[in-house]
Write a structure and sequence with these properties.
The chain is of the alpha+beta class. It is built from seven helices and 15 strands. The chain has one domain: Cupin (Jelly Rolls). It has an eleven-stranded mixed sheet with strand order 1-2-11-8-13-6-5-3-4-14-15. 34% of the residues are buried. The structure holds fe (ii) ion. The site of fe (ii) ion has 4 residues, from loops.
């Protein structure tokens, strides 16, 4: 897809507002809250998003709901077959759903251009910063919807487009993020969730996000989100740097060593094998696909339906491809 003309603010104008001279020292390490101009692209209106959803490949979106007991990690997966983009958005507006359009830069070149603009802007502002594997997702979620406590592998940004949400960001170290949990996440044993206790909130940074605001936080920092009582449209960005890639390789190798070889890594950086040896082990292990049997299997069991109180109806479950 590549239809219509969009305005992407030039590098001179910048996609970011409120950048302070000290911010480059915080990038990737600590939380930064800034303003942004993504909506000027015209790529996030309901009409444009409806068209985008209509053509979205099944393999690249996640449609989810949570069971009624929010304390349990009981995500359910749905699909959009037979449902238009407009119908899906209408169901999300009044339901209990979220739709994550992953890798949107692969589906529509306009978002790729915007994504490149975002990271060109960061690289202009942060001396020496070189990012790669940049990724963009669009998250459309229901009023009062929550995203449970979890951690992500790459560098993360959350850009609010429409609606309001509260973001809780926690320290990226134990007890908020145990080393073993991070390894499980990187090995694909879990789908981002990590153990959470309500008292963690006493140590959280709390950010209320409205349209035009964005937050970046430290690598792997656990976080959770609570929507206000309104439809929320947000953009998520991911990126890697050479440091993040090294951290990934070391944690992956430590996870393999701990689980398969009965070895307890001393630290997440230097335990036993050197980071380079661990990076090599990671590559070998992934090539051999020795970790595949522990990866998560999901089922599809609902479709959006605006006429239902929670915005969806159950279907005969089947294994997600
Ligand atoms: Fe996340």
């Amino acid at each position: 897809m590549d239809t219509g003309v969009i305005h992407i603010p030039s590098t001179n104008e910048g996609l970011l507002e409120g950048w302070q001279p000290h911010h480059h020292t915080l990038f990737g390490q600590h939380t930064m809250k800034l303003n942004h101009r993504l909506t000027e692209s015209g790529l996030f209106t309901e009409a444009v998003l409806s068209d985008l959803i209509d053509q979205y490949p099944r393999a690249l979106y996640n449609l989810n709901t949570l069971g009624t007991d929010a304390r349990k990690k009981n995500w359910r997966d749905g699909h959009l077959d037979g449902v238009s983009g407009q119908e899906a958005i209408e169901a999300i507006k009044t339901g209990h759903l979220w739709l994550n359009l992953r890798n949107v830069m692969q589906v529509d070149k306009r978002y790729d251009k915007l994504l490149k603009g975002i990271f060109a802007d960061f690289e202009n502002k942060v001396p020496g910063l070189k990012t790669f594997k940049q990724n963009m997702g669009i998250l459309i979620s229901s009023p009062k919807m929550i995203v449970l406590y979890h951690s992500d592998v790459p560098g993360q940004g959350l850009w609010q487009i429409e609606g309001r949400k509260r973001l809780y960001v926690y320290p990226n170290t134990a007890p908020f993020l145990q080393q073993e949990s991070l390894e499980g996440l990187i090995l694909g044993e879990t789908e981002e969730e990590v153990p959470y206790e309500s008292w963690f909130d006493d140590y959280a940074e709390i950010h209320d996000l409205g349209p035009g605001e964005m937050v970046l936080w430290g690598l792997n920092g656990p976080h959770r989100v609570v929507n206000e009582d309104c439809l929320n449209i947000s953009v998520t960005t991911e990126h890697y740097t050479s440091e993040i890639r090294k951290s990934y390789a070391v944690n992956y190798a430590n996870g393999v060593l701990r689980r398969r070889l009965g070895y307890t890594p001393a630290t997440n950086t230097t335990g036993g094998l050197s980071p380079y040896a661990k990076a090599a082990l990671t590559l070998v292990w992934k090539k051999l696909k020795l970790n595949r049997k522990r990866e998560v299997v999901r089922m599809i069991d609902f479709v959006p339906d605006k006429s239902q109180p929670l915005g969806y109806r159950d279907i005969e479950p089947f294994v997600k491809a």
